[in-house]
């Protein structure tokens, strides 16, 4: 029997605003607990929420980037439930009139492009953070009331690979749109997974389970790798799937049914009486559309056209907006385009993937990379020395030019000095000379190496080859 | 977010169910008493169902305004000491609540 999985995602994205959704407290990660709070986000009776215009703009912008229809009229609703992460006993969200309806995003898996449908995008407030101790729990309201955008997809994804590709593509779009920093470590993107399986060819979707609060892309991938076969096993044993909320346990690599809290949810949505509806005008939406930032596809084409980069390079650089920004900043500072692209793609991205940090957190700045590459271009230093300087900058920071001066790393292009090294290498290695003259090219490379060694790596290699050839006749 | 109230009982008013949603503990006698009283209130409100509202948009707010928005600028909040002052219990700058079962 052949099975197919149907996966839909509900993705929560923290928006990049200065302040919270319904009050003027800062929207910032990492502060001491309960230091970004006021009576409104603490849920005091008698306070009134006022919606953040910028959060509405960013949500609409996300909808534009995902080809949604923008709901010119939308409203907020209360979702009622009792839990210590929401002190008002309701979360303000959008129930039946969201800001964005429909839309899609294309993903590429194994060279195949698939279009994944978006159901809706709405705006809500995030909830407080709970910290669990042995005998009680603590609540930090810094996150409470920060703007949270929820993107709901159609159950169009069929494999863990597709779900992962979707999340990565979405992250790229949202970063390019400057909607969210999409920093996973800071919980900027969290998602719930709806997953069911059915026999290939069956018309109706199977009964779904929900996996809640996934906060890493890897977790989503691994949870689905476990959950899909689990459901298939159940069905093949003649059992049925129970509609339930399950939790992914990263440590054991299994999903398990959640207890208590999640059963019998009945949120009793009703319109939020404290917030008037939002009515956007066609003109406003058109203006926002005109302000859309450059997207990856366009940027890639521009890098190819304006800087003569190969398609491949341009693709690698734009895959991550921060990397493309770094590249363009280096060009601004005077770096030659192809060299900058080579060095970023190899040296810097290797470091980024080793450390898992962003390119901007490396100790080398775009200006320092530009300065380093100019030193190579002007033949002040050779390639191997440049790598050495780069390693120093990455380890300790600093200016390449100053490092080269301070450490005496400038390339030796003084013909007199190099001629002496060449003569020394020739007289010390008669066998290699004989081999070279007998037509063995490897012997010549060995002699070049000897001269480089004598110059302590600083010789201009081009010049060394010329001088050696001349002396060897 | 679940868009349907799948857990809603199909018919009648179930006081025990609503009490559970509201995290209220009711004794058996209270439950019976409230069941009767609330059914009475609901049947009173049911009179509204007789009004013909076809073709009318639901009225959500008494005052018809729209677009009451704020610009994205920081305004002062309250000090943590003040925020925690009314809490029954606090520790490490956190509001302390009974242990939440995950």
Largest interface: A-B, 65 and 43 residues
Query: Biggest sheet of chain A: strands, sense, closure?
Result: 10 strands, mixed
Overall geometry of chain A: elongated
Count of discrete domains of chain A: 3
Any low-confidence stretches of chain A, pLDDT <50, length ≥5? none
Provide the gyration radius of chain A in Å.
Answer: 30 Å
Averaged pLDDT of chain A, please? Answer: 90
- Let me know the average pLDDT of chain B: 84
Strand content of chain A: 15-25%
Number of strands of chain A: 18
Helix content of chain B: 25-40%
β-sheet strand percentage of chain B: 5-15%
Structural class of chain A comes to alpha+beta
Q: Would you report the number of β strands of chain B?
A: 3
Strands ordered across the widest β-sheet of chain B: 2-3
Separation, N- and C-terminal Cα atoms of chain A? 76 Å
- Our count of helices of chain A gives 15
Structural commentary:
- The complex is a heterodimer of chains A (473) and B (102).
- Chain A folds into 3 domains: 3-285, no CATH class; 296-407, no CATH class; 415-472, Arc Repressor Mutant, subunit A.
- Chain A is elongated and about 90 Å long.
- Chain A has 473 residues and is an alpha+beta fold.
- Chain A has helices spanning 53-65, 160-176, 217-236, 282-290, 296-307, 311-318, 321-332, 337-355, 366-377, 383-396, 400-407, 415-428, 430-437, 441-454, 461-472, and strands spanning 3-14, 51-52, 69-70, 73-74, 77-80, 90-93, 100-101, 104-109, 112-125, 129-132, 136-140, 147-153, 189-199, 209-214, 245-249, 254-257, 270-271, 278-279.
- In chain A, β15 and β16 form a beta hairpin.
- In chain A, strands 1, 3, 7, 8, 9, 12, 13, 14, 15 and 16 form a 10-stranded mixed beta sheet that branches. Chain A has a 3-stranded antiparallel beta sheet with strand order 6-5-17, with no helix packed on it.
- Chain B is α+β, with helices and mostly antiparallel strands and 102 residues long.
- Chain B is built from 3 helices and 3 strands.
- Chain B is flat and about 55 Å long.
- Chain B starts with 14 loop residues before the first helix and ends with a strand.
- Chains A and B meet through β2, α1, β10, β11 and β18 of A and α1, β1, α3 and β3 of B.
- β11 (136-140) of chain A pairs antiparallel with β3 of chain B.
């Amino acid at each position: 029997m052949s099975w197919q999985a149907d996966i839909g995602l509900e993705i929560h994205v923290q928006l990049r605003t200065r302040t919270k959704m319904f009050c003027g407290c800062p929207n910032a990660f990492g502060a001491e607990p309960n230091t970004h709070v006021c009576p409104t986000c603490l849920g005091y009776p008698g306070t009134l929420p006022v919606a953040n215009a910028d959060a509405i703009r960013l949500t609409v912008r996300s909808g534009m980037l995902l080809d949604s229809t923008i709901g010119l009229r939308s409203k907020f609703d209360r979702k009622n439930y009792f839990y210590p992460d929401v002190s008002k006993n309701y979360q303000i969200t959008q129930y039946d009139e969201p800001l964005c309806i429909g839309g899609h995003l294309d993903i590429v898996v194994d060279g195949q492009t698939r279009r994944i449908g978006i159901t809706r995008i709405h705006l809500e407030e995030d909830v407080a953070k709970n910290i669990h101790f042995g005998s009680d729990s603590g609540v930090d309201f810094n996150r409470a009331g920060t703007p949270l955008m929820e993107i709901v997809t159609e159950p169009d994804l069929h494999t863990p690979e597709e779900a992962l590709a979707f999340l990565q593509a979405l992250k790229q779009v949202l970063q390019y749109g400057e909607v969210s920093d999409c920093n996973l470590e800071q919980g900027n993107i969290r998602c719930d997974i709806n997953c069911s399986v059915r026999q290939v060819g069956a018309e109706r979707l199977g009964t779904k389970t929900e996996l809640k609060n996934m906060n890493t892309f890897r977790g989503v991938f691994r949870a689905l790798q476990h959950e899909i076969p689990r459901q298939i096993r159940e069905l093949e044993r003649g059992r049925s799937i129970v509609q339930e909320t399950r939790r992914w346990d990263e440590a054991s690599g299994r999903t398990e049914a959640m207890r208590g809290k999640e059963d019998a949810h009945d949120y009793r949505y009703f319109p939020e009486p404290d917030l008037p509806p939002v009515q956007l005008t066609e003109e406003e939406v058109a203006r926002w559309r005109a302000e859309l930032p450059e997207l990856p596809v366009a940027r890639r084409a521009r890098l190819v056209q304006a800087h003569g980069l190969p398609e491949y390079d341009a693709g690698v650089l734009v895959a991550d907006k921060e990397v493309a920004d770094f590249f363009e900043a280096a060009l601004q500072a005077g770096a030659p385009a192809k060299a900058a692209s080579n060095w970023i793609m190899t040296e810097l991205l290797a470091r980024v993937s080793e450390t898992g940090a962003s390119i901007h957190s490396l100790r080398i700045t775009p200006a320092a990379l530009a300065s380093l590459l100019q030193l190579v271009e002007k033949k002040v230093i050779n390639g191997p020395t440049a790598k050495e300087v780069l390693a120093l900058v990455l380890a300790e920071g600093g200016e390449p030019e100053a490092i080269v001066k301070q450490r005496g790393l400038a390339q030796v292009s003084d013909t007199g000095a190099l001629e002496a090294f060449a003569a020394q290498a020739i007289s010390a290695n008669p066998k290699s000379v004989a081999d070279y003259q007998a037509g063995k090219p490897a012997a010549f490379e060995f002699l070049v190496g000897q001269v480089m060694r004598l110059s302590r790596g600083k010789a201009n290699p081009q010049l060394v080859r010329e001088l050696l050839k001349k002396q060897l006749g | 977010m679940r868009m349907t109230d799948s857990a809603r009982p199909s018919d009648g008013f179930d006081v025990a169910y609503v009490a559970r949603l509201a995290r209220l503990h009711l004794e058996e006698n209270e439950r019976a008493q409230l069941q009767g009283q609330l059914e009475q209130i609901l049947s009173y409100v049911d009179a509204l169902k007789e009004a013909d509202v076809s073709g009318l948009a639901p009225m959500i707010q008494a005052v018809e305004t729209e677009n009451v928005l704020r610009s994205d600028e920081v305004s002062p909040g309250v000090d943590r000491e003040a925020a925690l002052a009314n809490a029954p219990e606090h520790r490490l700058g956190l509001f302390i609540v009974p242990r939440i079962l995950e």
